[in-house]
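Ticket closed. Logging final result for Histidine triad (HIT) family protein.
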Amino acid sequence: MTQGPSDCLFCRMVAGEVPPDVVRETDRTLAFRDINPQAPTHVLVIPKEHHATLGALAAADPGLTAELAAAAHAVAVQEGLASEAGPEPGYRLVANSGPQAGQTVHHVHLHVLGGRALQWPPG
Ligand code: 5GP
Ligand code: ZN
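Final structure:
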């Protein structure tokens, strides 16, 4: 696995230096609860390998990008937000990229949000 920057919070979680509240793990992805939840379910899903943004990940490794999307959906199913029958009651995936989107951790992550009615558009 690519060694991420030593100052990257999510790489430190992958390395076991900071213990996250893990909800799901695969060989190449990790999902854990957001420390500041914005909905009853607020889980962050990351590739274990360091990439700054979703676009950078997609360019570098399309297969891992697909795994990340599948992992996020699996979290939604696990949290009771979706099932084999479809996306009921439903959930939102968010990938903030860059400063105007409010990205604060520069290791790509999908936010899985659900458990309440979500407003659109977001602020
Ligand atoms: P962004 O704004 O980059 O899209 O999202 C970063 C997310 O990481 C935020 O929702 C924030 O609450 C979360 N976060 C920041 N520090 C920690 C931490 O130490 N542990 C966990 N579990 N989440 C964190
Ligand atoms: Zn990282």
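The two ends are 36 Å apart (CA to CA). No further action required.
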